[in-house]
Design goal:
Chain lengths: 113, 115
């Protein structure tokens, strides 16, 4: 149990466009979901904490107007990268929390040209 | 603030041998959880093992076991009978009990498994 999916797994977009990434908990309800960014050979960097039905809490230095997070249900959270630029190219991972444990999605590779 | 330290950036082990990955953490809290996550080349983060701080007994999951020393704030991972599929980046992580709290990760240890 405790499976989290992410879609898409790969996305290439043009600079200036917006990209939406979905994170779903498939077999449990996740009141809280988390969004991370990971650079090559580094640890995960928390971007924001997403709570169902309320506004996300962003980490210091993360632009909330650029990285829009919506947690509309107990099984779905979305991250929208608005007006994407090449420096937004990265690996984005979400997780769902159940019983004090975070279960991670497979990640989304974003390349902005 | 809580911190997690993994002092071994890289480790190597021969197939079928045993390897221990180190992790220390710093917290003033008494109620928390500790984790080891594995990230293979696919980059999927996989939960390896979990330890509740209030439990004295060390957690075990098949070939994976931990040595949890609460007073020393140490949480090492032992992998027995290492297999090629164990090759990955391993992250130690800490979370404060209470729901919705943030995971604090270490910097990771890259484990190589050699034939």
């Amino acid at each position: 149990g405790a499976v989290v999916s992410q879609h898409p797994s790969w996305v290439i977009c043009k600079s200036g466009t917006s990209v939406k990434i979905e994170c779903r908990s498939l077999d449990f309800q996740a009141t809280t979901m988390f969004w991370y960014r990971q650079f090559p050979k580094q640890s995960l960097m928390l971007m924001a904490t997403s709570n169902e039905g309320s506004k996300a809490t962003y980490e210091q230095g993360v632009e909330k107007d650029k990285f829009l997070i919506n947690h509309a249900s107990l099984t779905l959270s979305t991250l929208t990268v608005t007006s994407a630029h090449p420096e937004d190219s990265s690996f984005y991972i979400c997780s769902g929390s159940r019983q004090e444990t975070q279960y991670f999605g497979p990640g989304t590779r974003l390349l902005v040209l | 603030a809580q911190t997690v330290t993994q002092s071994q950036p890289e480790m190597s082990v021969q197939e079928a041998e045993t390897v221990t990955l180190s992790c220390t953490y710093d917290t003033s809290e008494s109620d928390y959880y500790l984790f080891w996550y594995k990230q293979p080349p696919s980059r999927q983060m996989i939960l390896v093992i979990r330890q509740e701080a209030y439990k004295q007994q060390n957690a075990t999951e098949n070939r994976f076991s931990v040595n949890f020393q609460k007073a020393a704030k140490s949480f090492s991972l032992k992998i027995s009978d290492s297999q090629l599929g164990d090759a990955a980046m391993y992250f130690c992580a800490y979370i404060l009990t209470g729901g919705g709290n943030k995971l604090t990760f270490g910097t990771g240890t890259q484990l190589k498994v050699e034939l």
